[in-house]
Structure formats: structure tokens, C-alpha cells
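anyone seen this seq b4? input:
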Amino acid sequence: MASSPAAAQPHAQGQAHPQAHPQAHPHYDRLIATARALPPLRVAVVHPVNDVSLEAVLSSVRLGLIAPVLIGPRERIEAAAASIGADLSAFDIVDAPHSHAAADAAVAMALRGEVDALMKGSLHTDELMGAVVRREGGLRTSRRISHCFVMDVPGHSQPLIISDAAINIAPTLEEKVDIVQNAIDLAHALQMPNVRVALLSATETVNAKVPSTLDAAVLCKMADRGQITGAQLDGPLAMDNAIDPEAARIKGIVSPVAGRANVLIVPDLDAGNMLAKSLTFLGGAYAAGIVLGTKVPVILTSRADSEPARLASCAVASMLAKAGRERLIKAVG
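predicted toks r here
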């Protein structure tokens, strides 16, 4: 459950987490516990040249979540390790002259089957994703690449998957089909029962002047016809009647999704980014981030992510990779 968009403000996001009680995120605890029962995930960590990115790796290793390969300038990686007193003698280090070369090397390792996931270190998200989405030699699949936050909101009865708040700026209806299916596949990989997808808009009624309501209506009909599978869909739904049963009752909305959604599909990146940050800053939520629609999961973390969110991101990737290997889903592989 983890990362933040490339545009996240580190100083602001860092302020949100200390307010949360350490026992306020039970969904992450269960997720990490489940992933710890799996073999460590082979992860190419791209350009981990500062203390924050290395500490995230070390924490995940201590819990048995990942078996990392560190890719980047060896001298800078070792200097970062020395600054925090870390011993890297047990880790493989692939020397790469700069961040772009590190991203290329990580993608090449994934294509050769030498690693099962990629993890962003101390480089810009665009640098890593540039290598991932490259049409020749990248990690594209037949699916549209999309991003999901798996959010643990204090006091909420279930984790929430939010998509897409980091990659697709203004997705078309065709692109939303893959965004929805990727999110559903992720929910199944995380063993979430009864996947319920809310297609969010500003209103819960179809309005020809509000394009997101039309997209929502079409997506629901596509699910009825088996073009989207593995979940119950409803929309358009406003945020309140998507997650609050009383709000849905007051509006007279009767469906298995209204008031009980655990997957929230936003109309565009602006809406998703604001929703995720509002939950983080105002609700004390943690957000684990993962990229889907690629040959292997891509873990996107921010400098400001809390340690539980970083660990949860690795746990999400581990469970996603397992589901992909077992051909239970098509969002990776």
C-alpha cells in the first residue's frame, strides 16, 4: 500500500505522518505480515545514493520482504551507506555512472528475468518511468500502464485503492478500461474480498455536461457485458456516497458498491492527486504506491514516505509479483 506522485511536496507530506497513532494502520500490518510469509522479492533498486533510499532498502531486508540489487554509482552508494553506518557487503551492487544508466540497467535485468520488481531510489520518477515505458526495450505489456495507491486510512474499515493519481493525466475512456482492470487485479493480488469499484465524479447522476459521468456509465455497462471482470462496478458516484453508507442511503442509492467501495477510480490525475494528498494530510493516511501494466511491478516511493508506507509498498509488489507468476492476474507480466 504506498508511494506518492512525482509532484509530492516532501516537507508537507512529512508533516502528515507523525500525527497518526502508531496503531492506526492495521491494514498495513496485515499486508506486511502476509508478504513476510513469501520468499524475499528480487528487487532492482535504482540509484539508491542517499540515506533515505538506502534506509528503505535496509528496513525491507530486515523484514525479509526483498532481496535487493543496488544499481547506481558505486562510490555514491557506498558513501551513502557510510553516512548511516550501513554495511553493504552482503548486497550485490551494479555500478552505473548515473541515474539514467541505472534505470536502463534495472529494466534490462527485469527483461532477463534476473529481478522480479523495480524500486525507485534517489532519482526523479520521470527518469525511471522513461526507461520503463520505452517502446523498444521497455517493460510495456498489452495493458495501459497505470499507478495505484493502496491507502490505509485511520478508522476506515478497509484499505482503499485509488487510481490513477500519478501517471495518466487525462485518461480516455479506452485508457480507463485498463486503469480499472489493473486496479481490480491489484485488489485480487492483495486478497481483498468482494472487490467493489466506485467510478468517482462530482455527482452521482449521469449528466451529459460532465464527461466523467458518461465515462462512468459506459464503464459500468462494459462490466455488465464482461468487458471488465473481477469486481462489482457502480458510477458515477460522488466521494461521499462511494465510501459512506449513510450518505448513500440519504441519496437513495441502492447498489452493492455505494457506501462500501474499496477501489476508487478518479476521473483524472488532478482529482486523484488531490484525493490522495487530502487523505494523507488531513486524514493521517499512509499511501503505498505501485505501477501496473508492466512486465514486473515498479515500486514508486517518495523521500517523504513513512517507513510503514515504504515497507507496505514492497509488500504490495511482492504479492502482486506472486499473483502474476501464478497467472491469476494480467496487470503484470
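The first strand starts at residue 41 and ends at 46. The chain is about 40% helix and 15% strand. kinda curious what u guys think
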